[in-house]
Amino acid sequence: MGDDELAQIRANRMSEMQSQRGGGGGDQQQKQQERAKQMEDMKNGILSQILDQKARARLNTLMIAKPDKGRQVEAMLCQMAQSGQLGAKLGDDELKGLLDRMTSGQATSKVKFDRRRAAMDSDDDDLDDL
Questions:
Q1: pTM here?
Q2: Do residues 17 and 44 lie in contact, with contact meaning Cβ atoms separated by under 8 Å?
């Protein structure tokens, strides 16, 4: 057996192993993507049933500005709809109230600026020597 034949056999074996590993993983990955797409479609269907047009626009704006909070609100709305807590479509005002109730429980962060420390600058000492 020559080096060329041995290299060819190795290349064939390597491609077989990659196709087996990649082929099986590809199916699983495809199924997972399909499942995620189905879940997304279900969620969008539920949200379109429980939110009117203005509320849906507000939720989409929230998703753009704060994706984590938007996903949290979507999950909460879907859960409320599935448990039967929502009777009719939510309007913009009801969604605002729901968002206010969610944010009222969270502490807001504050920035404290000490002006006295900023006023005492060592650069002012240099001007006295002129």
A1: 0.57
A2: no
Q: Are 53 and 16 in contact (CB under 8 A)?
A: no
Cα(13)–Cα(91) distance, integer angstroms: 62
Q: For 1-6, what is the mean pLDDT? A: 72
Q: What are phi and psi of 109, to 5 degrees?
A: -90, 140
Q: What is the SS3 assignment for 117?
A: helix
The pLDDT of residue 56 is 92
CA separation, residue 111 to residues 6, 69, 91, 100 (Å): 69, 22, 34, 22
Question: 82-120 pLDDT, tens per residue?
Answer: 888 888 888 999 999 988 888 876 666 788 877 776 555
Tokens of 125: 């000492």
- Give dist(CA 64, CA 130) in Å, integer: 55
Q: Could you report the per-residue pLDDT of 70-79, keeping only the tens digit for each?
A: 999 998 898 8
- Residue appearing with tokens 């797409």: 37
Q: Evaluate whether 51 touches 95 at the Cβ level (below 8 Å).
A: yes
- For residue 82, the number of C-alpha atoms closer than 13 Å in the C-beta half-sphere is 10
